[in-house]
Amino acid sequence: MAGSIKKFSVIFEGVGVATGKMRNDIAVSWPMMNEHFELATDEGPFHGGDGTAPPPLALFTAALTGCLMTQLRAFAKRLDVQIHDLKVNTKLHWSAEQEGNKPYVSMPELFTLDIEMDTDVNVSEKIALIQAATKGCFIEQSLSDRVKVKHRLKDNSGWIEV
Predict the structure, then answer these.
(1) Which of 54, 69, 84 is the last residue of a domain?
(2) Taking the model in full, what pTM does it have?
(3) What is the CATH number of the domain that holds 142?
(4) In the chain, is it the N or the C terminus that has fewer CB atoms within a 10 Å radius of its CB?
């Protein structure tokens, strides 16, 4: 018997203020949960900044990795899978093209998340968990229509494409 379908919204808001050469201080809120976060980004000297905070792409990498890891653990509970240990190695690859001194145009090439998961379930159940988690990761779902996102599961015999 199927359960009832619930729909819900997740809304985050941010206000960024330029506070240095390339530094940005961003106040992020999650109104529904009454949660507030103070974050900062900066660029290193290569891009004209002072390196006082992580660059935006570092936070993006952490956000995508953390989102998938959170959903794997959250959905493991729903699917009755006990995760003993979890490690995700993420590689985000972009390229850019620049004509002369004009602003460059960047484009995503491939995002790869390699998942090492110690559980007592078989490979097909691990794959089902990864597929559920990727569908539940709001960040990945924001990307996946335009950006190729690849998942691999480490098994005793090597890497398995998910």
Answers:
(1) 54
(2) 0.90
(3) 3.30.300.20
(4) N
Helix, strand, coil percentages, rounded to 5, for the chain:
30, 40, 30
| Cross-strand bridge partners of residue 161 | 152
- The first and second tokens of residue 40, run together, are 């900062």
β-pair partners for 90: 113
Residues 7 and 43 in one domain: yes
Same domain, 3 and 74: no
Q: Spell 34-65 as b/e; 16+ CB within 10 A means b.
A: eeeeeeebbbeeeeebeeebbbeeeeebeebb
Q: Which two tokens stand for residue 5?
A: 């379908």
- Write out the residue range of the structural domain in which residue 108 sits: 55-161
Q: What is the pLDDT of residues 101-151, one digit of tens each?
A: 999 999 999 999 999 999 999 999 999 999 999 999 999 999 867 777 888
